[in-house]
Amino acid sequence: MEKMSRVTTALSGSALTGRTMHCHLDAPANAISVCRDAAQVVVAGRSIFKIYAIEEERFVEKLNLRVGRKPSLNLSCADVVWHQMDESLLATAATNGVVVTWNLGRPSRNKQDQLFTEHKRTVNKVCFHPTEAHVLLSGSQDGFMKCFDLRRKDSVSTFSGQSESVRDVQFSIRDYFTFASTFENGNVQLWDIRRPDRCERMFTAHNGPVFCCDWHPEDRGWLATGGRDKMVKVWDMTTHRAKEVHCVQTIASVARVKWRPECRHHLATCSMMVDHNIYVWDVRRPFVPAAMFEEHRDVTTGIAWRHPHDPSFLLSGSKDSTLCQHLFRDASQPVERANPEGLCYGLFGDLAFAAKESLVAVESGRKPYTGDRRHPIFFKKKVDPAAPFAGLASSALSVFEMEPGSGSMSWFVDTAERYALAGRPLAELCDHNAKVARELGRNQVAQTWTMLRIIYCSPGLVPGTNLSHSVGKGSSCGLPLMNSFNLKDVAPGLGSETRLDRSKGDTRSDTVLLDSSATLITNEDNEETEGSDVPADYLLCDVEGEDDELYLLDPEHTHSEEPEYVLPQEAFPLRHEIVDTPPGPEHLQDKADSPHVSGSEADAASLVPVDSSFSLISVSHALYDSRLPPDFFSALVCDMLRFYAEQGDVQMAVSVLVVLGERVRKDIDEQTQEHWYTSYIDLLQRFCLWNVSNQVVKLSTSRAISCLNQASTTLHVNCSHCKRPMSSRGWVCDRCHRCASMCAVCHHVVKGLFVWCQGCSHGGHLQHIMKWLEGSSHCPAGCGHLCEYS
């Protein structure tokens, strides 16, 4: 603290002097307020209510307002405000729903003046009128706001926000009759104190509760709001509809917001939890704070600028039981630690590079060589005179643009919209996606989908045998593929007959054709063996021609000039007793005994006859086991996914993850999957492919991604009659016991798609509301609200 500087500010003949300092309190503080002359500050909390004098070197306790032997809940303060016109007048909001006023001019020790007990729950905020000495406004957890005239014992007006709780109320500095209120459901309402029956304007400001608001001291229509969604938004209220002009993204829920005096674009914020620091933001640079105060060790609960015309001193109270005065000159500036250099690719391949202006100034004098078509374009950020720290991290931006048409991403959009990720069998999904990729000219991707179908898709079980025999004297193996048939269509006795007899001297060849879609052959025990689903059919036969006459049959290219042979039905008894197949050659027997040969190959090999004059084929199983288990290819599939991700095609990696699901999920770590999903979802949202993005989130195999829709969507539903929030999931309101989803046009219960106005809560059937608003802009319920449908 000794190294901190001192500042003296002249204000209308008086001078504010001081330095950064703090003092220890007896208990945590909930709120603070400064008197008009900036010489004293009041600190209020559940167990503390004291006034401190602000001296040049320290805080000095002047008065303790918690007097009496017995502690009272009226002294447990949630908020405190010091009147800016009468220095002897204070008001507090108690946690038991009581609003208390305090008169410091009373000669007795007890300075309590009046008690207003009209609220039923905790009062969250109290606010004095900036120019009217006797008007006090309060907002409570019961959803009501009350306006008190301190010359009377009761409230003069009650305002119902039609919400669960009021979090903040603030009188407008420029408009005498206007005040703003923020609510738990994310709405902000503007009221005229002369019309307590309905608000003048209401709009949804945040996704979640709005904890605070503050009117700009100079710009008449600017209202700053902060909420649980970690955002501070600045609204222009001078337009017909509230317009968001600035938005600041913070790192925690915003508990307090205060505009900085004499600085039009600066405001201070503190958080409700997690973050203990106080930030001063320039709303024109919303991503990096202009200043940061780090003195507190617990959550900051109250902030106030010491004087409405002095931007140098900021006071704060915290749950760490400290009261601090911060000198703006001593604040740390995160912009000094910000990296002024960056690199980013655009959606369409453009490259942006930011660097320090000093480096760019040196390099900008160098002319680009003639072969370089990508001439850099420099944009220099103007320095804000109200924020001298902005120049510390100003950068020059160089943009390298792609040639027109060379960086088209239409293939990405078309692929995302046309891909099928669920709702069909795996084989159909792979075939469909392969077709889409092939039509877009992405042949490698199409081939990958085809390979995935071969690896993971089972051919299914066929109840019969797809056997075809060709009989012909002197025929070779160059025969066309014949149609497969089911054993049920064959005459009885042939279904179990797997051996074909041939008379002596007959030179015909018996062939067996295995169909690619189902090569299941029934043996004597009526067992079924799974065959290969590889899209190829092989001809197995005994031949007397050359070796090259054995070839792969192509079912799409049949030879029409060759005769089609079918298996004849035996209409006469067999010529002799069918004998067992003689043993095969020794080298085939050895192969059957080898541990590296499957049982199907061994059985097929053992069926080859020794006598060349006796050609006989007996098939009881698939001739070979050409189908490896899918797990055998898991490592290869994972390498393929990583290859596509490293090449930048995260779309392919995520699509395969979704289509294969559990088949491949266990082989890729959760962190990698989450990284792929977030990258792909970010790309989809950049291209405004919201439906596809939602489908990917819904079908994702990562738990962290699948819960995004549950965490990012909040829907608050109010009853259209009593305006209270719907606590149950049914159609009947728990408070008024009336059906909430009534159509304002046809007056029937809406059991399907329901659309409602966020301003008046009335709605109905989608088609009815659309037809109504085509001819009238007023609410069909007759409430007078101007509803819009877009």
How would you characterize this protein structure?
α11 (670-686) packs antiparallel against α12 (690-699). This protein is globular. The chain is built from 15 helices and 39 strands. A hairpin with a 5-residue loop joins β4 (31-34) and β5. The protein has 790 residues and is of the alpha+beta class. The strands form 11 sheets. The protein has a 4-stranded antiparallel beta sheet with strand order 3-30-29-28, with no helix packed on it. The protein has a 4-stranded antiparallel beta sheet with strand order 4-5-6-7, with no helix packed on it. The chain has a 4-stranded antiparallel beta sheet with strand order 8-9-10-11, with no helix packed on it. Residues 366-390, 460-563 and 584-624 have low confidence and may be disordered. The chain starts with 6 loop residues before the first strand and ends in a 15-residue tail after the last helix. The longest helix is centred in the C-terminal third of the chain and has 17 residues, at 670-686. It catalyses: S-ubiquitinyl-[E2 ubiquitin-conjugating enzyme]-L-cysteine + [acceptor protein]-L-lysine = [E2 ubiquitin-conjugating enzyme]-L-cysteine + N(6)-ubiquitinyl-[acceptor protein]-L-lysine. Its main location: membrane. It is an enzyme of class 2 (transferase). InterPro entries: WD40/YVTN_repeat-like_dom_sf, WD40_repeat_CS, WD40_repeat_dom_sf, WD40_rpt, WDR24. One of its GO terms (biological process) is protein K6-linked ubiquitination.
